[in-house]
Amino acid sequence: METIVMEHIRLPKVENVRLIDTVTSRRASVGTLYLTATHTIFVENETEILTETWVLHSLVFSVEKQASTTTGCPLLVRCKNFQVLQFVIPQERDCHDVHVSLLHLSRPEHYEELYCFSYNANSDREDRRKAWDFINLKAEYSRMGLPNHLWKLTPANHHYKVSDTYPADLYVPKSATPPVIMGSSKFRSRGRFPTLSYYYKENHAAICRSSQPLSGFSARCLEDEQMLEAIVRSNPRSDFMYVVDTRPKLNAMANRAAGKGYENEDNYSNIKFHFVGIENIHVMRNSLQKMLEERGLAHFPSMSYFLEGLESSGWLKHIKAVVDAGVFITKAIAEEGISVLVHCSDGWDRTAQVCSVASVLLDPYYRTLKGLMVLIERDWVSFGHKFSHRNNHLNGDPKEVSPVIDQFLECVWQLSEQFPCAFEYNERFLITIHHHVYSCQYGNFIGNNQKERTELGLQEKTHSLWTYLWKNRTDYINPLYRPDHSQTQGVLRPLTAPYCFKFWGALYNRFDRGIHPRQSVMEYLMAIREETQQLEEQDHAVRQDRWSDDVEASSMAGQEVCWYRDQQYGRTERVMI
Amino acid sequence: MEFSEHIKTANVEDVVLRRPFYQPTKGTLCVTGHHLIFSNRGGDSARPFLLLLRNIDAIEKRPSVSSGTITLKCKDLCVLQLDIPGMEECLNIASSIESLSSLETVSEMYPFFYRPPFLSLQDQWGLSSTEQHYAQMKEIHDGWRVSQVNRDYSVSPSYPPAVIVPHSIDDETLVKAARFRQGGRFPVLCYYHRETGTVIMRSSQPLSGANRKRCREDELLLQAVIDGSELGYIIDTRSSQQAQQARMTGGGFESKSCYRGWKRLHRQLEKGKVLQESLIKLVEACGDQSHSVDRWLSKLENSKWLSHVQTALSTAGLVAECVERDGHSVLVHGSEGTDTSLLVSSLAQLILDPDSRTLAGFLGLLEREWVQAGHPFQQRCAHSAYSHVRLRHEAPVFVLLLDCVWQLARQFPLAMGFSEPLLLRLAKEVYASDYGTFLCNSDQERCVTGVKERTHCLFQSLLRANERQHYSNPLYERTELAIWPSIQPPSLQLWKGLFLQWTDDALHLVEAQKVIQNLVSQCHRPLNEKVENTDG
């Protein structure tokens, strides 16, 4: 694969390239541009400290060659992590070569070309394999109290024979027989029959998920009706359930013409049907695009322009819609004790968002570092969120791209802003996950479902992001986290007034460093905590080796941490020796 | 005059009080000359709820046959509701509140009656005087002097008795220059920058008028400021068009030909009615119960409040840049020189001067640049965002200052010695206070009405040990460097602590502040112990 990649590099090195600071557009640095198999690297000339900018090819969103000027030919590189780099290359021909090379390098055709397959490939295979066991979904379901007398593990989807986009292991009501499961799955898009996402052991209410029913205008399916009845019965304290269709009603109705649609309350006994009106992936893609275009930087520093742009992009409205839906489900589960079935069309985008936001609100576990990893692994990775399509990993259909998991991460951020002491992880953790959803450096998010991932052998050939994050967890701890605090225990009840939703500058303006607070409270608190810990250690003359269980990990850490930081901050300042 | 004349019904039983964060409670309502007192019947040990009548901005009554409801909208943006049994009682209470809350005679206001045990009228009123301030700045003694030319307020009624001016300019020249400036507010020193030896001055507009009058003495005064250096900047807080128009009404600006070496820049800052309406729109938007994000963002934008914050900070940044980066002196003025000029000059000082960022330093800055410098507090803060009365001179310039300071503190959370609760306290006190600090419109008025003898000083009170503790920033680490704020739109945020302080959202943020405080004190304890150990 390496050789294929190398073929794309028409020009490995260009000198006297200028990198323009896109925020101030005043400062430019002169240096050398290198194209490698995995990165674009810009090395500044003649500075006392060596300044390098590294950009991973898989993070490149677009490369745009602009009209030549007297000083050279500008090349604009926009990244999926919102970094924008403007190079000016002296010779038009060189610029052309770099442009063409980057276009190829950033749009691989095959999974095997992705960075995760070459990233740190020589480490011990067995260690790497073991690291993947760090997040274990079986353990997650047993943490919820499953299986029990109400819910069972079904082998129905082993070898992915019922639904190729579902995980192999699924939990269904005890009374759901194989014929009911089979029948129900035939009546659902892509065979995604109703199955358990989260079980609230305090009162036995459950969040279930599925795809839309193939009801058309009048079709019905006895087994599907029995399946929902089984879900109602698996919650002994209630005699009905909610079915939440996360789509706008109009969209759902339009689907009926195509033989799909939504549940008819007359056919299903004991359901209450509810639309929540979250827009589809195309609306979300355009909304983000619009917000990014008008995020009010540099050339348009007017407050009005910024706020108008934010409004017309509709982005915060969409975020609020997802949180509102999560709040609705949380109330149903925790306050009313009613189970909920959530679906959209295919049940892998809006359904994943809404189920996981509800989980974060319901269960403090998902507000811990490990809990969020488990949640993403369960509701997103295992349930077949199409990461490679949505996050544009390969050269594919641009209409499949959409910031769906991005919106989930932002919902969590908005909640953490409202409850500063309720989350064990900090903003950096969310931003880092966002980064790696796109980076293709780790195997976690490659492919579109479990079946594909198994076939690619990702657990044998790539590293897991979760173990990397866990090893570096001190970077991601929120110093304000108070698990025993009244507002952090149990269910979160957020306000969802419009003013509770803010523009997430730390993510969308991540590389425009001038606009961020110049001093960070979080870093200060982390620093003094570290100081205190060191002093305590000295005082007790005890070396607390808190990370002793991670010793095997540190062999990998050293160089790779550096590596990672290069990409996180874009520019590193290392002293030249 | 007796307050009792206004009190038609002094006591009502079985009143239900509804206010943010509390369950509705039943109790007895009592109207006194300056307060509404609500006490909870029964064995509840909770202290009675006390509301300063001055704090009430608008009162809405809905009487019905057997009872009535009064909604009180306060200047601190809190909204309360009283359910009063009996229509007559309801109307009586409402009219008592209406007349008592709008009394305008300064000497009848509550600060003249407030006598807490922990303060004495013998205490010094105010933190410092011009003379004391001057005495502390040894480095300016060669070039600058204290002038008592305004000792009887005859040169400028809104200036303090003593001001700092260039050494080479005598009082006679000052008197003549004052005649050429609106309200007699001739250019005076407000900040001296040690590293560059340059200064920030402020004044009102020159009265050049339609026929471009000149004033030799005014020109001399400004010449003396930049004596020896090449260039000074005049930052005019009006647009150049507004400055041109001002000539028609006798005002004007410094023309290039008359003021050699001075370069004029215009940065339009809104004030007066525009600013007041902006506040009203913002508060209205924050109270909007609709659940539409679009509507919220559109109202937020439409209020223009954050645009005013942005312009104020960027103009202050410009002034600071001239002084620190370019090494040129600056004169700031708009028209009267009592509003936007003070806003810009005090923000520029916060950016540049670490001494003004301590708790005592900040209060000292407010005293010098706002109280002594003659910001007309009484006129500007007569009403806030809810009032239905016709606006006259109201404008939330001081609230805008506090918001800008909050933005600075948000961007530099370690650089300020004081905390958000101090800014919130000031935002409340400026409209309704137990203290005399924000009474009247000028130093002269305060002397005439005896404010300094017969009321207590807020700033002194805020510096008492336990208050100081409460208003200090636990994260404070002094930096000698200038703190340059970002004025990019994503860097500026709505000040939730003020504008949404009565929502649950703010409650969580207050909790977080407490956690930070505990964390810092916990972390510092072992450190301090450690230090003591090593010393021992």
TrEMBL record, chain A:
Taking every annotated instance into account, which residue ranges of this chain make up the domain Myotubularin phosphatase?
A: 131-508
**What Pfam families does the entry give?**
Myotub-related (PF06602), PH-GRAM_MTMR6-like (PF21098)
Give the keywords, sorted: Hydrolase, Lipid metabolism
Tell me the GO molecular function terms.
phosphatidylinositol-3,5-bisphosphate phosphatase activity; phosphatidylinositol-3-phosphate phosphatase activity
Give the residues annotated as coiled coil.
Answer: none
Tell me which GO cellular component terms the UniProt record holds: cytoplasm
Keyword Hydrolase on this protein?
Answer: yes
Tell me which residues bind substrate.
280-281, 344-350
Query: Where's the active site on this chain?
Result: 344 (phosphocysteine intermediate)
Q: Which InterPro entries match?
A: Myotubularin, Myotubularin-like_Pase_dom, PH-GRAM_MTMR6-9, PH-like_dom_sf, Prot-tyrosine_phosphatase-like, Tyr_Pase_AS, Tyr_Pase_cat
Which GO terms are recorded in the biological process aspect for this UniProt protein?
phosphatidylinositol dephosphorylation
The Swiss-Prot or TrEMBL record describes its family as follows: Belongs to the protein-tyrosine phosphatase family. Non-receptor class myotubularin subfamily.
According to UniProt, the name of this protein is Myotubularin related protein 7a
- State the species of origin: Esox lucius (Northern pike)
TrEMBL record, chain B:
> GO terms for CC?
cytoplasm
List the InterPro entries hit by this protein, alphabetically.
Answer: Myotubularin, Myotubularin-like_Pase_dom, PH-GRAM_MTMR6-9, PH-like_dom_sf, Prot-tyrosine_phosphatase-like
**Gene3D superfamilies attached to this UniProt entry:** Pleckstrin-homology domain (PH domain)/Phosphotyrosine-binding domain (PTB) (2.30.29.30)
Per the UniProt entry, what is one GO biological process? phosphatidylinositol dephosphorylation
Q: Identify the domain of life.
A: Eukaryota
Q: Which GO terms describe its molecular function?
A: protein phosphatase binding
The Myotubularin phosphatase domain extends over: 124-499
Protein family membership: Belongs to the protein-tyrosine phosphatase family. Non-receptor class myotubularin subfamily.
Name of the protein? Myotubularin phosphatase domain-containing protein
Which species does the entry assign this protein to? Esox lucius
